[in-house]
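Please predict the structure of the following assembly.
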Amino acid sequence: MSANSFGSRFVMTSFGESHGAALGVIIDGCPAGVRFDTDLLQNRLDRRKPGHQSQVVSNRQESDAAEVLSGVFEGITLGTPIAIMVRNQDARSDDYKEIKSSPRPGHADDVWLTKFGHRDHRGGGRSSGRETVARVMAGAVAQMMLQQVLPDTRVIGYASQVGPFRLTDAERADVQSKDIDSFPARFPSASAAEVEKALKLAQDQGESYGGIAEILISSPPLSLGQPVFHKLKSDLAQAFMSVGATNGFELGSGFAATMSQGTDFHSGDQNVYGGIRGGISTGENILLKASFKPTSSILDIAKKGRHDPCIITRAIPVLEAMTWLVLADHYLWNRTDRI
Amino acid sequence: MSANSFGSRFVMTSFGESHGAALGVIIDGCPAGVRFDTDLLQNRLDRRKPGHQSQVVSNRQESDAAEVLSGVFEGITLGTPIAIMVRNQDARSDDYKEIKSSPRPGHADDVWLTKFGHRDHRGGGRSSGRETVARVMAGAVAQMMLQQVLPDTRVIGYASQVGPFRLTDAERADVQSKDIDSFPARFPSASAAEVEKALKLAQDQGESYGGIAEILISSPPLSLGQPVFHKLKSDLAQAFMSVGATNGFELGSGFAATMSQGTDFHSGDQNVYGGIRGGISTGENILLKASFKPTSSILDIAKKGRHDPCIITRAIPVLEAMTWLVLADHYLWNRTDRI
Amino acid sequence: MSANSFGSRFVMTSFGESHGAALGVIIDGCPAGVRFDTDLLQNRLDRRKPGHQSQVVSNRQESDAAEVLSGVFEGITLGTPIAIMVRNQDARSDDYKEIKSSPRPGHADDVWLTKFGHRDHRGGGRSSGRETVARVMAGAVAQMMLQQVLPDTRVIGYASQVGPFRLTDAERADVQSKDIDSFPARFPSASAAEVEKALKLAQDQGESYGGIAEILISSPPLSLGQPVFHKLKSDLAQAFMSVGATNGFELGSGFAATMSQGTDFHSGDQNVYGGIRGGISTGENILLKASFKPTSSILDIAKKGRHDPCIITRAIPVLEAMTWLVLADHYLWNRTDRI
Amino acid sequence: MSANSFGSRFVMTSFGESHGAALGVIIDGCPAGVRFDTDLLQNRLDRRKPGHQSQVVSNRQESDAAEVLSGVFEGITLGTPIAIMVRNQDARSDDYKEIKSSPRPGHADDVWLTKFGHRDHRGGGRSSGRETVARVMAGAVAQMMLQQVLPDTRVIGYASQVGPFRLTDAERADVQSKDIDSFPARFPSASAAEVEKALKLAQDQGESYGGIAEILISSPPLSLGQPVFHKLKSDLAQAFMSVGATNGFELGSGFAATMSQGTDFHSGDQNVYGGIRGGISTGENILLKASFKPTSSILDIAKKGRHDPCIITRAIPVLEAMTWLVLADHYLWNRTDRI
């Protein structure tokens, strides 16, 4: 197990600093015979790109054009490692010169320096959110693989809370029918415009918000998950909590379940289990939540006016990617569970 | 990576079904030269034992006497695998005969059967909570190792919520000074007696409660955690969410952070970060929470009157063990971060 | 990857010191649904036992009765970890008292002491050949699994050289028709009696021999092996070279191939490739060889008259077990090579 | 463990097909603080390059200019993944068109097609020797790391046999004082010119030779190697046997040891052990050998006149790289062997 690898059968290994030459990923373990969908790959990248989602995300400009370096031939995966890379372009290292001597508060700069004794001070280096480019590329390949064999499975991410704004129960119940990306901040609500306004204001005023992202897996594969330490829920928790700024994870009813008595909890709606029992997917929809603290980039002089007022909007494609990766890994793992 | 292994440098691999011959664990990667504390080992096991913690836990009787099979010589670890085993005694397989044909609702029985096509129907087999015996034994060894080099580090687990009962802010602030095990249900509160009474009643009436367990790591080692996928918080999330009945995880302020504005959140109490920034331990106290759903064993005819009305009491030693394991793993990992 | 684990999908983790309480193994990753053959397991153990194979092996007496602790229910594997253990009995620790202060020449005693700073001086501790008990048990399970799906695959081990004695070409060509275990020293030759006599004499005189063990895999599974670092030949080389006293490995024609010109080599007998090309099994018979240096236990005062005059006889069941383990691992791995 | 990764602590993951866009490697686990030597990196690449070593190697022209994409800042490693890439240039895919329908005899083409059901037919794809570019780059980083802390350790590779030509005993004893690269075919002998002539002739006539490469590790680090399955000798065997065209491996005296009696073998020259005992390095020089079968590219119409008449010359830098990788991996591993 290496620090920058994720997965056991469908394994991604990522590289890249925020202001280095490039970011990329090697996917090792993707079976041969998967139709490679270059459009899907680029679309997934575009969805996480700064500047893509209306005006409410950081306006760093990167073309993020994915280059597939290996593993695909004549549009089909070879069973060999798939390497994909994007070049960094809008680095603006100059902005970061003053940071060299003064680590940014709330960022990981000082803890990384303490740990490694040497750091790339430009834009956070590898602790930057830019690292998630690699996850999104790998997640796209995981999605290609799974959708070839499980065309009904969908992974739907959306914000259920942005700062003080929350979806109503009716809005949450209805997310499957919405085009989430058409909503500013990926908050599929009648109050979306209001939220957008609040975020724009926050960006201008150097304010930031936290929030909750939800991932709904509809028609998930059955029987995914390994007892004991690699339950589907525990690998998903690791995946979600590996994303920067996360500080909470829930499956199904989550912390709210603690307010119920067992006789009520277990006799009612199966949704309280969140689609996973005994660590293994039951085939029912899986519901996951991640909480994000308010972005710390408000403290960062270099990012003045460029920061994300709420990171959730851009984190959603990353959580979706991590979800596809966990599903792909367990899908392959499951192939060896019976003789 | 195998399904029943946990950790990358300090690696535990566990085995055993609830009503099989034995439960056990191999710890591979524990350095040579650790003073092996047999009393600590047995004490940790006794703390998770059914029937140990007052009257509010399942009364299955197991002596759970640990036998060290390898890896220790003259009271010192050899650097070879440490195997530890307990025999199962109070199996009462007869109780489980009727379950063979009728999987228990809310349990993992049916999902395991779907997955593996063959199951040990006696008491849940490997999906039983009894599996955690192995974790507790491994956690004890992790604790021995770390406390030899970091004598100040403590891992303190307690219930902050049991069903409708919650610690007051003052009680939570004061947990370090309490003898948690002296409180029924490990709920260190003036209302402990009231909670105990409620749990006893629940056991009699076939009712159960969920709750929240908290783990406080005081004086944790500095610089633990690996970017990107093995942040300390993500490995802890995986560890906690691998315990049965968990459905939520929080670091520091957790979901509550979503209610703050960034300017408030980042300007105040460092505790909101929970002792981990950029995925790496800062040396400040680390605060973790896990939510548990109400135990499903109320649905289990065979366990009538033997079930745990709230699993948290017994889960706390397991979460403590998982915490020690993650710390031990990252402590060794950290040794290779700099040349 | 941990030091005492082997395999990637079908993973064994072993434990035990020569004179500790027990030796054992956890097999993690064996699929559910394998018919567990207890007789096969015990038979494999008996074949490696000291004192089993005529008079030409060390006469330490161990019953080596395998106890299956988990993972098997109603004679079928559960898909959970299979733990198997044997107790040590004939330890004779007294014999080893004098060794405590004087490490044995040619043994690993001194290098282990330098490395770990602490050692179990009794009979070599974990560096003893007794460790191979765990391999043989795991190999038996691998064999059960594979033979259920690939009943024609056979793994046949035999000595092709014992000290100065070598099989004739005709004898080597004919090994598949022989009952290898019926030959002293597992040397299936007309000169077997002569070899036995030489070995008996060596044992009496404190002499020892090296030799060559060969493993023939007939009707092997097709398409096993992973490019690039886990070619079937490289994992087999690792497996064989992990056995004590080995110092050479060959596939097919091995070192002799260096004497041929390419035009000859590639135009003739396919057997020169040894059944593996490009790192992947072709379906043709696979031929492997391991060389063993003369046993060093002749230098060991405590073993006077108890030593193995040639370790190959007992190493053959170990190499067979390692072969089954590599095949089982790659058989499962191969299940995810194509979508 | 993934198919295209090697190592446990110092982990390389490689990618790239022979005629794809690029070849590259991610090194994960290299500690922070290593001075990065770009010249060493390029020099190592140049040494394996076709066309570099006189006239006796395949004359494909590649500039093989290494681009470091991440993990290094201000000339020092960051502790983050180090990605290095070279672009493919001299692809000549046209040459390979006719191969599409007719797999080349002796190559891996047909076995890969059987396994994966889809292949990149251009120049062998990933089964091509060009894959070793990634190994050489990773090995250079391993060398940088080790030489910073162990400046005396050297890894010296040379051919001891090329087809029918062998080094004399005196020449072998003297390799440490020679500039191996100054000898055609890296065969440091008075008959080097004769060998070169024979190889040139072979290239013209479509003939090829096998041979033996030796790797001498002088002043190796002490105490490297893990019992039981990751003995230094077994990881080295895996490393060497993962190189294409290898079919034999020896440590120290190797197969020749089988001709000695134990009393002779163990009483004389310590070199017979090859610098490793009980699987662990003793600090004495380590001697390793690999045998290579005659190159099969003589069978390859597309390579007419471009093939390597003896692959050893170019394989030596690859074996050196694999040796540095194993040493680096075990060097870091060894840091956690004692508390």
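Residues 312-333 of chain B form the longest helix (22 residues). Residues 66 and 85 of chain B are 6 Å apart (CA to CA).
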